[in-house]
Amino acid sequence: MFEQFTIVTDPVGGSVALSAVFASLPLLTLFVLLGALRMRAWLAGLISLGVALIVAVAVYAMPAGQALLSAGEGAAFGFFPILWIVINAIWVYNLTVVSGHFDVLRRSMERISPDMRIQAIIVAFCFGALLEALAGFGTPVAVTVVMLMALGGVFKDLQPLQ
Question: Of 17, 49, 50, 57, which has the fewest Cβ atoms less than 10 A away?
Answer without folding.
Answer: 17
